[in-house]
Batch of 2 targets.
Target 1
Amino acid sequence: MAVEINSLSSSNLKGTGDSGLVTRSGLPGGKRSATSTTSRKDRFDMTGSAGKLLELEARIAAMPIVDAQKVEAVQKALATGSFTIDPQTAADKMLAMELSLP
């Protein structure tokens, strides 16, 4: 995957006519440098691993945050009165979560 960078900030650039060079002012000590303005484009090549990470990030972002089927099952159980909570299991899980925090 390649990203092309085609823009330059014109605030620090001053043209020098038709010479094809651009002087860059604002360098330390008032020095100037010349840079070619030919039609060369900068490129950035991303590794295969980075591309895969971007793809995975996009897939994860598209996934729902909650499990809709589980939510529906709990709502149905609450509506019918068949939802039960085991206080010991709830307490154990709360304690385990608290102990796992830094």
Target 2
Amino acid sequence: MNGRLAISRFPKDDEFLDSSVDVTAVGVDVLADLVGIPPSRLVGDVPLTEEHAERVRQLTGITLDLEKYDYFLDPSSG
């Protein structure tokens, strides 16, 4: 996995992307460990849940508002 990593946010009542924040600088190994997926298998959107929320905030400064939005770790190739 050599591409960009982002946290993408979608309103719970909508299927359209609301925002996306580049978190590549945190590191693929750290983020893969956060979601429990080996870095080599980190493909496709990975849902972020309440169990990830505090660690995401510590690593990125992003507070997940899980009542209003669905969040995903979004690995992409560019």
